[in-house]
């Protein structure tokens, strides 16, 4: 670097320090804390390392100050030069320079004695760890300090000149319904989004996801413009006896292979924390690419720093323990006050909540910031913590509302980080679907849907029920990234994939649930079984399901090629719309028939499609999973997604279906020119 370059480099670092600290008085206060912790850390070092002797306290203070200054002054340069190779080299370089500083102080003054280079290096290492832990302990709950540190590191590696053309950051708040967001804004839970709306430069609209109302179908439509062949979050395919679970990496990869044309919304962008990649050039924490070395990027300054730095480890460990304790206390209070309905909140759910609310939230945000500082033109990230908590604690209870407050804070931090990014960014915040509150089927009726169906089919029915929680796939994605950052020294665990059922005869019944929607497959009946086939083999099944008080309706094909929807009060043919008695779809709104027609046209649709009963009067739906906030089917808030976007980007009419939303987003990006190629890696990241 030439002198002018060095001056500009440190000017930028000081500017960022000021922005993220909140002013020079805060900078001075932080400087005093750094100095105090440095003195304490050096005292610990001198006590632990026999080869370092302190003979004069003032000289020891000078040595501590020298060590702190070496880290402050040289670390940004080392990050700029070495972190593209390995974040370990940054630490090693800092240790060497601090060891040299110790030796220099010892040579200049008799107040400190060091018996050799080995003691100097050992002392520098102990000092670095101790100082990091002390400094981190004072700022664990300070998001500005954490992300400010990250931004300064990224700025040291990013181009200082502006990149031509604006970019777009899409932030998906998984599972948040439009009415729930409006309520949160009104109640002051989302001050960042409320401030944006108050300017008049941003507007909030609703969009309607068609069946199935869940993430893999919505993201396939939004990111790829195609969500055909995704009948639920889970489904069974008779041809090869395979159960699909959307967030299992193998299944997500196969879903994307089926629907991608290579030119998704993110073809020139980055995917962070999603199920599907949108054909992104850069992909992180994305289920469809996470175990594919050719697609998922394993090297990133953020991932290296997040899983190697003692500062980051200490922070997320302490915050995670706090989140686990909070969940245990809140669950017990919920039980003590007799709140109904109550979700499944036993272990391991508290660990899943900590992973999504702390680790994943901060890691996704950090990766988005890194991509902004690379100047990537289009970034799409999914924040899943509200969805996770709303499933188990309720869509509008205090736990879910606290999650929204935290997500809004993250959006504000992304906004602040964008101010100094090399590209000017616009923000779009949206959801993939909502959630509908309601009791669990097995809690209300004391048996699971699969057990009900099995008993209606007869004695000795071999049943396979697929209604496990979503957080297993999310935790595996995080787990794999952690092991990748550690260099693959340990072999990561893998979730049980959908896969084939086995080499023997298929089960007689497979029930794949997605919220209050269930695909019922009868593998021993070939092809798509008709009503006549099912009645002949299992004469009590369809009538018994229709009569069950927890079932809203049952959809089944008939031998004449039509499809019929049956409910207790009436029936309806799907294509002709002919009804006998009351219309079974009347409680489910104007798009129910279109959604069912899409589902019915898919070759992997179940032999029966069963919907949990929805009550328009209470707004509650009975879900087939262990969740009191559900989505995947019809009824209530799960069909009310939102999109918050710049006011000058109009939607031009209602948006029905994720593929239609994809077309609108494409038009915005074309008008903005955000699909331009990202800048070259001037700050190399492998």
Secondary structure: elements and pairs:
Elements: H1 3-21, H2 24-48, E1 52-54, H3 57-82, H4 87-108, E2 112-114, H5 117-138, H6 143-157, E3 167-173, H7 178-186, H8 191-198, E4 202-207, H9 215-224, E5 234-237, E6 242-245, H10 249-259, E7 270-272, E8 282-284, H11 301-308, H12 310-336, H13 349-374, E9 378-383, H14 385-393, H15 398-418, E10 425-430, E11 436-437, H16 441-445, H17 449-457, E12 463-466, H18 471-485, E13 509-514, E14 517-521, H19 531-537, H20 541-547, E15 551-557, E16 563-567, E17 570-573, E18 579-581, H21 592-601, E19 608-612, E20 614-615, E21 620-621, E22 629-630, E23 641-646, H22 658-672
Parallel strand pairs: 3-9, 3-10, 7-8, 7-9, 12-13
Antiparallel strand pairs: 1-2, 4-23, 5-6, 10-23, 11-22, 13-14, 14-19, 15-16, 15-19, 16-17, 17-18, 20-21
Helix pairs in contact: 1-6, 2-3, 2-5, 3-4, 3-6, 4-5, 5-12, 6-13, 9-22, 11-12, 11-13, 12-13, 13-14, 13-15, 13-18, 14-15
């Amino acid at each position: 670097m030439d002198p002018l370059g060095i001056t500009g480099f440190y000017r930028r670092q000081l500017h960022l320090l000021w922005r993220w600290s909140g002013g020079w008085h805060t900078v001075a206060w932080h400087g005093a804390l750094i100095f105090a912790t440095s003195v304490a850390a050096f005292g610990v070092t001198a006590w632990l390392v026999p080869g370092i002797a302190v003979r004069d306290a003032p000289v020891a203070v000078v040595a501590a100050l020298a060590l702190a200054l070496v880290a402050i002054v040289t670390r940004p340069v080392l990050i700029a030069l070495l972190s593209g190779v390995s974040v370990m080299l940054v630490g090693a370089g800092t240790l060497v320079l601090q060891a040299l500083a110790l030796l220099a102080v010892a040579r200049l003054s008799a107040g400190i004695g060091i018996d050799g280079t080995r003691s100097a290096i050992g002392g520098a290492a102990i000092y670095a760890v101790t100082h990091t832990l002390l400094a981190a302990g004072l700022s664990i709950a300070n998001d500005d300090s954490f992300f400010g540190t990250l931004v300064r590191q990224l700025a040291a590696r990013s181009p200082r000149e502006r990149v031509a053309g604006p970019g777009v950051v899409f932030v998906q708040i998984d599972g948040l319904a439009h009415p729930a967001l409006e309520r949160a804004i009104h109640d002051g839970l989302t001050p960042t989004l409320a401030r944006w709306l108050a300017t008049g430069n941003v507007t909030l609209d609703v969009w309607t996801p068609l069946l199935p109302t869940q993430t893999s179908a919505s993201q396939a439509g939004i990111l790829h413009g195609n969500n055909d062949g995704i009948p639920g979050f889970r489904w069974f395919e008779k041809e090869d006896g395979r159960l699909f679970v959307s967030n299992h990496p193998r299944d997500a990869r196969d879903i994307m292979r089926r629907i991608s044309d290579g030119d998704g919304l993110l073809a020139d962008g980055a995917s962070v924390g999603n199920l599907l990649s949108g054909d992104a050039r850069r992909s992180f924490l994305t289920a469809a690419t996470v175990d594919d070395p050719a697609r998922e990027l394993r090297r990133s300054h953020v991932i290296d720093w997040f899983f190697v730095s003692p500062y980051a480890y200490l922070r997320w460990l302490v915050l995670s323990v706090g989140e686990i304790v909070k969940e245990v206390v809140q669950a017990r209070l919920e039980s003590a006050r007799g709140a109904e309905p109550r979700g499944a909140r036993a272990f391991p759910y508290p660990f899943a909540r900590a992973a999504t609310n702390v680790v994943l939230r901060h890691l996704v945000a950090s990766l988005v910031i890194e991509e902004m500082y690379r100047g990537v033109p289009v970034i799409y990230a999914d924040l899943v913590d509200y969805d996770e908590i709303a499933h188990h604690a309720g869509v509008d209870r205090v736990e879910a509302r606290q999650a929204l407050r935290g997500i809004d804070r993250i959006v504000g931090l992304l906004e602040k980080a964008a101010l100094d990014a090399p590209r000017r960014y616009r923000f779009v915040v949206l959801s993939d679907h909502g959630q509908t509150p309601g009791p669990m089927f097995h809690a209300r009726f004391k048996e699971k849907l699969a057990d009900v169906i099995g008993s209606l089919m007869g004695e000795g029915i071999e049943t396979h029920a697929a209604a496990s929680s979503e957080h297993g796939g999310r935790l595996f994605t995080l787990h794999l990234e952690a092991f990748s950052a550690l260099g693959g020294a340990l072999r990561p665990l893998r979730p049980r994939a959908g896969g084939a059922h086995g080499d023997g005869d298929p089960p007689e019944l497979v029930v794949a649930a997605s919220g209050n929607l269930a695909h019922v497959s009868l593998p021993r009946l070939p092809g798509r079984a008709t009503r006549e086939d099912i009645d002949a083999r299992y004469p009590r099944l369809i009538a018994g399901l229709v009569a069950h008080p927890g079932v809203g309706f049952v959809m089944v094909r008939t031998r004449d090629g039509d499809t019929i929807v049956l409910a207790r009060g009436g029936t309806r043919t799907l294509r002709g719309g002919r009804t006998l008695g009351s219309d079974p779809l009347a409680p489910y709104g104007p798009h129910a028939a279109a959604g069912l027609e899409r589902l019915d046209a898919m070759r992997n649709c179940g032999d029966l499609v069963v919907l949990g009963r929805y009550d328009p009067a209470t707004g509650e739906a009975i879900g087939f999973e262990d969740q009191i906030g559900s989505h995947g089917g019809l009824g209530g808030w799960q069909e009310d997604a939102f999109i918050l976007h710049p006011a000058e980007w109009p939607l031009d009419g209602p948006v029905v279906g994720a593929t239609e939303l994809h077309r609108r987003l494409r038009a915005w990006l074309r008008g903005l020119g955000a699909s331009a190629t990202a800048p070259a890696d001037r700050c190399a990241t492998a």
